[in-house]
Each structure stands twice: as structure tokens, then as C-alpha cells.
TrEMBL record:
The chain crosses the membrane at residues 204-224. It comes from the Archaea. It holds the Pfam family DUF7343. Residues 242-301 form the DUF7343 domain. This is MarR family protein. Keywords: Membrane, Transmembrane, Transmembrane helix. SUPFAM superfamilies: Winged helix' DNA-binding domain.
Length: 307
């Protein structure tokens, strides 16, 4: 009886050791995956009429430790080019890149794939599986061949739902912008020719619509310029302004009525705090308007000073 009890205890101890080892391996794997994050991933695909495509991938990673990174290259690629931190690598060596720790690692990949699109009767289907994990920011753009489009009534034509559906005048562009997408993720586009059976090219209508939009945009722009010019013609007496405010207004006027805020400091010698205070006062007097651009502001003069 004692002997059987000892055997059971040994077996129980071995089972506990086994599960403890599994837990440790899982924790180490999870920790390793969390050691890096793809800060930026951009994929550009240009589909050709012969069902081939050109693809380029831009990756920026900041790993905490030195590690191997899998490029996840597709099958049957040709003309592969790999640039790592502005250095061109030999593409025949491997699809694994050793990343440097605690610094930004930039990877640029480009290649050509023949027969990448599947043709089914009148439809063409392109599919791409995203395998990269821990992606923080994803931009995925696909250009269809000229004179090809997407059936808007077919809800399964684009999966997942795109952020934008655009045109550059010749091609339809499908664009996804995602934050921390769950991977692996499958992307799919089903498209077809815009040329109908009677030979009428629907792309002509698309081109006409784009030209019409351009004319409308030009009209709006000219109207805005005319309105803005009339607004500038409204003059105010200089007695309402301090000497520093007059200095700032004269500089903006000499720069063509528009200037970046950071440039004012170098031209006047004023501190950033003083520049901000003067601009705030001018904005309250409706003499200028400020528009944030990046880390600075663009200052536009709205009214003239009656010198």
C-alpha cells in the first residue's frame, strides 16, 4: 500500500512538472511576441491587366532586443529587392532579417508576381493574407488596372470594408487604414472590366466626372480667393495695434500674407512665448487666423493695416 502511494505521488509530481514547463514556455513566447511592435506597415499593390502585380512593403520596427524578423515573402515572387536601413541586401540569402535592438529598423521590400489574380468568368479576384503580428499602424493600398472597377451592389466585392475608395483619373484605388489590426487577416477584392459588351467604355464617363469635379473645385477655389481678397481689403487704423503687433503684421504682409509661426521667431528675435501672446491678441482682433500644421501653425493675414 505504501509502495503504491509513493508511485502515485511520483506520477502526480511528474504531471505537475509537465504543466509547469508548458506554462513557462507559453509565458516566454508571449513575452517574446510583446518584445517588438511594428510601428508602421504600408503595403502598396499595383494590379496589371495581365493579372500580374507589383507589390512594395514598408516596415518600421522598434524592438527592445535583438531579434530575427520574418519577411513573410509570398510564393512565386520575382525581381525581389530588400533594403534594410538604407542598405540593399542580397535577396537570395534569406527572408529572415536580424533586427538591431533599441533603435528604429526600416525595411523596404518590393517584388513582382505573375498570375497573382484569379479570373472567374467576368470577375477577377485578388486575395492577400496579412501575417505580420503586432502591427500598430497599417496602410494597405491596392490599385486596380485601368478601365476596371468594382460592383458597388456586391457587398462581398471588398473584404474587409475599405477606409477609402478613390480614383486617380485612370485607376480605382482601394485603401485601408487600420490601428492594431488583428492578424492573420484576409483581404479580398473582386473587380471586373468597365468595358461593356457593346464596346462602350464606361471609363470615359469616369474621366468626364473627374474633369467636372476639377472644374467645380476650381470655381470654389476662385470664389474663395475672391472672397478672401475682399476681406483683406478691409483696413483697420494702426492706432488699434501695439508696436510689436504692427511688426508682426508687416512681416506677414511682406511674406505674401501667409507665414509659419516658427519663422516669426527668427525674423523678429522675439521669444516663442511673446510670439504666441502677440498672435493671440491679433487673432482676437480678427486680423489673422491660425491653422495647425504638424507641430507649428500657419498664420494668414485677414485684414490690411491702414498706414
Amino acid at each position: 500500500m505504501v509502495k503504491e502511494l509513493k508511485i502515485e505521488l511520483k506520477l502526480s509530481f511528474i504531471v505537475l512538472l509537465f504543466f509547469f514547463a508548458l506554462f513557462c514556455v507559453s509565458a516566454i513566447t508571449t513575452s517574446a511576441e510583446a518584445e517588438f511592435e511594428i510601428t508602421y506597415l504600408r503595403i502598396d499593390v499595383e494590379i496589371m491587366e495581365d493579372l500580374s502585380l507589383r507589390e512594395s512593403v514598408d516596415i518600421i520596427i522598434y524592438p527592445k532586443e535583438e531579434m530575427d524578423f520574418n519577411l513573410y515573402l509570398p510564393k512565386n515572387y520575382r525581381n525581389l529587392e530588400i533594403i534594410y536601413n538604407d542598405e540593399k541586401l542580397d535577396p537570395s540569402i534569406t527572408q529572415i532579417i536580424k533586427l538591431a535592438s533599441n533603435e528604429l529598423n526600416s525595411i523596404k521590400i518590393s517584388y513582382f508576381i505573375a498570375g497573382a489574380v484569379e479570373g472567374k468568368k467576368n470577375d477577377f479576384i485578388y486575395m492577400r493574407e496579412l501575417l505580420y503580428s503586432n502591427v500598430k499602424n497599417l496602410i494597405f493600398r491596392i490599385k486596380l488596372p485601368p478601365a476596371y472597377g468594382i460592383n458597388s451592389e456586391d457587398i462581398s466585392a471588398i473584404i474587409p470594408e475599405p477606409t477609402y475608395l478613390q480614383s486617380d483619373g485612370k485607376r480605382i484605388i482601394v485603401l485601408w487604414e487600420m490601428k492594431s489590426p488583428k492578424t492573420p487577416m484576409m483581404f479580398k477584392i473582386k473587380y471586373n472590366s468597365l468595358v461593356t459588351n457593346n464596346g462602350v467604355d464606361m471609363n470615359i464617363l469616369v474621366s468626364f466626372a473627374i474633369i467636372l469635379i476639377l472644374f467645380i473645385s476650381l470655381g470654389i477655389f476662385l470664389l474663395y480667393r475672391f472672397t478672401n481678397k475682399k476681406e483683406l481689403e478691409v483696413k483697420i487704423p494702426p492706432s488699434l495695434l501695439s508696436e510689436d503687433e504692427m511688426t508682426i503684421c508687416d512681416i506677414i504682409k511682406n511674406e505674401g500674407g501667409i507665414i509659419k509661426q516658427k519663422k516669426l521667431s527668427s525674423l523678429t528675435g522675439f521669444s516663442k512665448a511673446k510670439i504666441t501672446k502677440i498672435l493671440t491678441n491679433l487673432e482676437k482682433k480678427e486680423l489673422i487666423e491660425r491653422e495647425p500644421v504638424g507641430r507649428t501653425f500657419v498664420i494668414t493675414l485677414k485684414k490690411k493695416i491702414d498706414h
